[in-house]
Amino acid sequence: MIDVRVNWKNVKKDRYRVKELLSYKRSISLVVGERRVGKTFEILLTLILDALRREQLTFTWWRLTKIEYDACKQDFFNDMTAFNIFPDYSFKVVGNYGYATYTKDGSSFPICYLGYLKNHQTIKGVPFPYVRTNVVDEWFEEEGKSKIKKKVTMLHSINYSIFELRKIRCILIGNAVTIDDPIFKSYDITNIDRPFTKNRNIVVENTDKEKKYEAFKKQAKESSFGQLVSGTEYGDYALNNKFLLDDYTKINPTIKVSVKNKAITSFSLENHIIALYQIDNFFYLKEVKKPIAPCITPFTNEANKDIIYMRSSDLTYKRLFKMLLTKPYYFDSIYSQNLIYNLLNKSLSNMAN
User: Are 257 and 286 contacting, i.e. CB atoms less than 8 angstroms apart?
Assistant: First the structure.
């Protein structure tokens, strides 16, 4: 295998480590718990490192819906690049495939396949002879608000298409948990109130029950941004692991924006423009057709002459949330709400570093 240089000094030592979970060698390994403890980052780093050492397409990565997939695909390698984890490589996504380029000689090769569950049938007949791991990120959905029916059946279909009769290694990643999720029912898991729960086919790691991650959780809650959101609805989502993205209490598409209501700013998020207005004694965020100055984005590929790029760690986003806390605020759609909350959650994660 190839010797790959890794900037381990840029990897936080108090974050999640996947080694113990995989040591159980179950067909399905499921890790759940606190947001921002580093589950996705660590698992992605581990899989990329394996792919680079083998110079092969060795893993597949899935999200539940196309909206989630489109957002994931756009910034899939961003953290690896931002923290310069693999200094001798650059990364990009072309179509459904993630590529690595060895910067010293320009050689490029695919290392992963990206997809979403509802589109699982498209890989039937596609050979994946070197794939060693199949991952589904953000597996859990809020109880009673499932977007994906028969998702466990889809998961089995994907695993069979990829591995056929080879040994299956599937990793599911989740945050807030409902024990009623179909994956638990499928494998008779009725309680995950301990660090590791396992049977013959599946192992579940619950990081919320592991003392070794308490230092990071404490750091996130005590950061300036963590203190800012503490006690708010968004704080419940970002710090206390409660679902919020499917909450419709702040959705009001009937609010009218008149010409006298000037936009304070706008955001380009996943190629959608969300404008922020102040209307009487509340704020309103709605999707508009064109950028309204100043328009900012955390995505480098969306920046142009009308849209300013600002990293998600920029204090501008902190000031935005601080302003939103001063008055009630509403959204024109659940999609606008989710884009803004995802932005703020990413900002919180970066500010806690």
Answer: yes
Q: Tell me the average pLDDT of the chain.
A: 85
- Residue 159 or 353, more confident: 159
Render 142-208 in DSSP notation, one character per residue: -TT--S-TTHHHHHHHHHHHHHTTSPP-EEEE-SS--TTSHHHHHTT-----SSEEE-SSEEEEEGG
User: What CATH number should be reported for the domain whose range is 8-215?
Assistant: 3.40.50
Average pLDDT over residues 225-252: 62
- Is this prediction's pTM over 0.70? no
pLDDT band at 352 (very low <50, low <70, confident <90, very high): very low
Instruction: Show the beta-strand stretches assigned E in 238-333.
Output: 263-269, 272-279, 282-288, 295-297, 307-309, 329-331
d(CA 341, CA 20): 32
Domain ranges of the chain: 8-215, 223-351
